[in-house]
């Protein structure tokens, strides 16, 4: 219990330090940068995922450095599934609870307060501010980890694992959609910026295309050269090459088919992504012939977790920014305070001078309060917090899956990156990416309409 108590003390110290900020917060609602707020949520998820991976990697099935965690396994004698995988599930579950609370707290609901028809339960500022309370809540949840019932997490076929698999599937789909949308947007935006005669944007697109193609061909060659004895890996690689040739030809003739010019940038980005997934799927096959790297397990898990976190950051930012408006109706008309409206902190008469002229004054304190409220509302509307937190919830589930081989224990390595389930999830994701990209090419022809990216 010594190590666990130390961890809990650290959590308590962090929570206490965060709580000490309350004295300087006044009302407790301190506005922050939208980017900084999003980064903070992502860092919390990243650190908790790293902590879960360390315990899983070096837990009871490893070097017994964290054998104290066996007490969470009710009568299971430190079973690996309970102590290692169960610990990851617990961390994931607590992240889901926290971000679900944030989702409920920041989603506008019908209200009778003021002139607003919809308002979040905790106000518009809760998404960006109130950090002392949110951090205390988050660390308190993490400190409750040892007391969660083992019934939910004590085997790979539990209900939580199935819920996590489904939610992770949605995250993977969103990730692929974002990747393809990003490739089109990048190409379109940089081409538009080059219309003023600047060649730098065209050169940038060429460099990106070149690097992605080099990376894709490099991974393809590595599979053939370093994984030559892995038959399944060879099949995956050959299929990936054939698909690349197919959608490259389709892109080349796209203008003839749909009157929409094709581009090499999306092709290169998709090829690099699918080549990475093909290599990772090959490396995940539980066979010595398919894992020639001496320390390949560590390399794969680091790359997998890192890539998942990077994609999650970009996915959260882009999806929340491009989502439809949270509130129907005109959200701009109410942002312009009328100069003479006292309720908005405007200018109004406070008396008369000797000549009988009215003396005008501005309620600056009221104006500042109204301005801050409007800024909080506008920031929340622009951030689309409900979309942001739903993505973080699915990302919390997804992190549990990539750390536990999608909830299936295989082999004796104890490494979640190795397993047939993990391998097939990756290769199917690669094929789904290709299918979705091909659909963006042929959809205008089949549906007889244009698609804007």
Automatic annotation (TrEMBL):
Which GO CC annotations does the UniProt entry carry? membrane
Transmembrane region(s): 35-55, 135-153, 159-180, 201-223, 235-253, 260-279, 299-317, 387-408, 428-447
This chain's protein is named Serine incorporator 3
Q: Which family does it belong to?
A: Belongs to the TDE1 family.
Instruction: Please tell me the species this chain comes from.
Output: Hondaea fermentalgiana
InterPro entries from the entry? TDE1/TMS
- Signal peptide as annotated in the record: 1-15
Topology within the bilayer: Multi-pass membrane protein
């Amino acid at each position: 219990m010594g190590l666990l108590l130390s961890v809990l003390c650290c959590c308590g110290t962090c929570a206490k330090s965060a709580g000490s900020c309350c004295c300087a917060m006044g009302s407790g609602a301190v506005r922050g940068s939208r980017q900084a707020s999003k980064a903070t949520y992502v860092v919390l998820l990243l650190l908790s995922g790293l902590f879960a991976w360390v315990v899983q990697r070096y837990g009871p099935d490893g070097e017994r450095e964290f054998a104290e965690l066996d007490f969470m396994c009710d009568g299971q004698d430190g079973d690996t599934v309970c102590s290692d995988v169960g610990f990851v599930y617990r961390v994931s579950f607590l992240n889901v609870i926290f971000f679900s609370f944030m989702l409920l707290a920041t989603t506008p609901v019908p209200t009778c307060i003021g002139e607003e028809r919809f308002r979040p339960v905790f106000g518009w500022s809760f998404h960006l501010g109130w950090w002392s309370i949110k951090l205390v809540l988050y660390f308190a949840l993490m400190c409750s980890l040892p007391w969660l019932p083992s019934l939910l997490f004590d085997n790979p076929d539990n209900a939580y694992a199935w819920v996590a698999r489904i939610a992770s599937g949605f995250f993977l789909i969103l990730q692929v959609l974002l990747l393809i949308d990003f490739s089109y947007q990048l190409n379109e935006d940089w081409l538009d910026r080059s219309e003023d005669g600047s060649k730098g944007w065209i050169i940038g697109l060429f460099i990106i295309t070149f690097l992605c193609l080099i990376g894709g061909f490099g991974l393809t060659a590595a599979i053939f050269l370093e994984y030559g004895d892995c038959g399944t890996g060879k099949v995956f690689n050959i299929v990936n090459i054939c698909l690349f040739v197919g959608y490259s030809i389709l892109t080349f003739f796209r203008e003839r088919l749909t009157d929409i010019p094709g581009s090499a940038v999306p092709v290169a980005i998709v090829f690099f992504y699918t080549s990475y997934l093909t290599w990772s799927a090959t490396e995940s096959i539980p066979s010595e012939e398919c894992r020639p790297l001496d320390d390949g397990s560590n390399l794969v898990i680091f790359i997998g977790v890192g890539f998942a976190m990077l994609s999650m950051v970009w996915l959260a930012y882009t999806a929340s920014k491009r989502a439809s408006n949270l509130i129907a109706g005109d959200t701009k008309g109410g942002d312009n305070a009328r100069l003479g409206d006292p309720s908005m902190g405007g200018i109004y008469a406070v008396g008369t001078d000797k000549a009988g002229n009215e003396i005008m004054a501005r309620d600056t304190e009221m104006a500042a309060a109204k301005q801050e409220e409007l800024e909080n509302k506008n920031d929340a509307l622009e951030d689309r917090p409900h979309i942001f937190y739903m993505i973080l919830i699915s990302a919390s589930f997804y992190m549990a899956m990539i750390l536990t081989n999608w909830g299936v224990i295989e082999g004796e390595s104890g490494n979640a990156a190795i397993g047939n389930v993990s391998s097939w999830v990756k290769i199917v994701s690669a094929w789904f990416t290709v299918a979705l990209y091909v659909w963006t090419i042929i959809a205008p022809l089949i549906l007889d309409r244009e698609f804007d990216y």
